[in-house]
């Protein structure tokens, strides 16, 4: 039985002064008792009950270089001695911007912010100012941050599908009355949205892979269809690459799929675990900031530490062959899971890429949209995840896996054995 005695004591203490007992609500469901950690190193976490846990959560995505990475440590430590944040300009800002423009296909310029939620709001504001329109389209199951206008139909129940639905309490309907929702991978539905709201849609916002809800891949031609429909109707296409950016490839989904949307948002893997986000796209789209049609602001935008971390992270990720190795690692795990499950009589599929993928129990085909993810057997996955934790492998509660640059052969060997043993146990 996994010992969480000290974590439980800390959680009980936290609940007396910290609302929810955790800093973000998603973490309450990660394990029966939220685990507390003393440190992390490479691909491993070390909790307060003495466990060494091989980590495939990567802090919900940011730790693409793992923890305690020498190049990242060096960059941040050197910067700390020079400045924390300046509230003014420094060379690191344009050096990072130049690096991003160099590696991101079709990106001419960027703006910097601090979180994925902020970057999405900045992209929406730019699209609205550029087009002079207010409405935008998002897809069911896609998560674009916690602000009221986008936290819509993220996990709708069956009665809420097909219409914009609040995802939590405290979301007045008028705050998302300009948010249109359609199913993922359904071009006719998107065409209908444009037909029903002529000359009123500013942009279409989409995760290029639906990583937040089952890692549903786009069907052939769907992403291209989004871009083409936006061009046809005078709207902007926005890829929310908070997860896929610098994870699918150095150039993110733009490189992975060979496509060029109007704008893309970046966060998570961008700075390897430090708070940093950005919006990138065509130069003329940022004219709305230069000419004062709208603004982009934030006290910590371009802060010294985040910029240094992002520059070091991207520079490290440029190592030749690194992404091929990460994807091979993930695909080997996927193949192991599918074979081990089949050998034990389980119905199972995996979906996504090698560096981010999801596991679906009790189904015969990978889901293509949010509604299809609801068919999966989440209870069996919960048992599998508990069995993996007993064997020292830490996974996310939603059956999503993240693979990073620090997951090597030794980690793969341990994970393959743990998967095979856990399948036998359940």
Could you give a short description of this structure?
The chain has 426 residues and is α/β, with parallel strands linked by helices.
How many domains make up the coordinates? 2
Strand and helix order:
HEEEHHEHEEHEHEHEEHHHEEHHEEH
Q: What is the quaternary state of this protein?
A: single chain
Q: Give the strand line-up of the largest sheet.
A: 4-10-9-8-7-5-6
The structure class reads alpha/beta
Could you report the average pLDDT, rounded to the nearest whole number?
A: 96
Helix content: 25-40%
Structure overview:
With about 425 residues, the chain is α/β, with parallel strands linked by helices. It folds into 2 domains: about 5-70 and about 320-425, Alpha-Beta Complex (Aspartate Aminotransferase, domain 1); about 70-315, Type I PLP-dependent aspartate aminotransferase-like (Major domain) (Aspartate Aminotransferase, domain 2, 3-Layer(aba) Sandwich), CATH 3.40.640.10. The chain has 13 helices and 14 strands. It has helices at about 5-15, 70-80, 90-105, 115-130, 185-195, 220-235, 250-255, 285-290, 305-315, 320-345, 370-375, 380-390, 410-425; strands spanning about 35-40, 45, 50-55, 110-115, 135-140, 180, 200-205, 235-240, 265, 275-280, 350, 355-360, 395, 400. Strands 4-10-9-8-7-5-6 form a 7-stranded mixed beta sheet, sandwiched between helices. The chain has a 4-stranded mixed beta sheet with strand order 1-2-3-13. β1 (about 35-40) and β2 (about 45) form a beta hairpin. The model has no long low-confidence stretch (mean pLDDT about 95).
């Amino acid at each position: 039985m996994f010992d969480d005695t000290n974590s439980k004591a800390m959680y009980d203490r936290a609940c007396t002064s910290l609302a929810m007992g955790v800093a973000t609500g998603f973490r309450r469901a990660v394990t029966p008792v939220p685990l507390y950690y003393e440190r992390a190193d490479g691909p491993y976490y070390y909790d307060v009950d003495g466990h060494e846990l091989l980590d495939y959560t990567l802090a919900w995505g940011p730790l693409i270089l793992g923890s305690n990475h020498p190049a990242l440590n060096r960059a941040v430590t050197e910067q700390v001695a020079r400045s924390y944040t300046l509230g003014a300009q420094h060379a690191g800002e344009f050096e990072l911007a130049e690096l991003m423009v160099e590696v991101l296909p079709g990106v001419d310029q960027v703006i910097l912010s601090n979180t994925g939620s902020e970057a999405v709001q900045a992209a929406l504001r730019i699209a609205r100012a550029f087009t002079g329109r207010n409405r935008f389209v998002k897809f069911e199951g896609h998560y674009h941050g916690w602000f009221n206008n986008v936290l819509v139909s993220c996990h709708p129940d069956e009665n809420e599908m097909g219409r914009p639905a609040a995802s939590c309490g405290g979301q007045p309907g008028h705050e998302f009355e300009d948010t249109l929702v359609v199913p993922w991978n359904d071009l006719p539905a998107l065409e209908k949205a444009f037909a029903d709201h002529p000359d009123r849609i500013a942009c279409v916002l989409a995760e290029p892979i639906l990583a937040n809800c089952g890692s549903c891949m786009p069907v052939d031609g769907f992403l291209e269809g989004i871009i083409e429909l936006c061009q046809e109707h005078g709207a902007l296409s926005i890829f929310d690459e908070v997860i896929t950016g610098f994870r699918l490839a150095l150039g993110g989904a733009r490189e992975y799929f060979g496509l060029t949307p109007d704008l893309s948002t970046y966060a998570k893997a961008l700075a390897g675990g430090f708070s940093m986000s950005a919006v990138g796209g065509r130069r003329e789209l940022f004219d709305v900031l230069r000419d004062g049609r709208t603004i982009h602001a934030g006290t910590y935008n371009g802060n010294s530490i985040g910029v240094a971390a992002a520059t070091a992270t991207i520079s490290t990720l440029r190592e030749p062959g690194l992404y091929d190795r990460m994807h091979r690692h993930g695909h080997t795990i996927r193949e192991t899971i599918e074979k081990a499950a089949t050998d034990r009589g389980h119905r199972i599929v995996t979906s996504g890429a090698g560096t981010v993928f999801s596991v679906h129990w009790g189904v015969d085909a990978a889901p293509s949209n949010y509604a299809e993810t609801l068919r999966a057997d989440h209870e069996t996955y919960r048992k599998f995840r508990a069995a993996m934790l007993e064997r020292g492998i830490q996974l996310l509660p939603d059956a999503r896996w993240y693979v990073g640059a620090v997951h090597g052969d030794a980690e793969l060997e341990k994970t393959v054995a743990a998967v095979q043993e856990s399948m036998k146990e359940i």
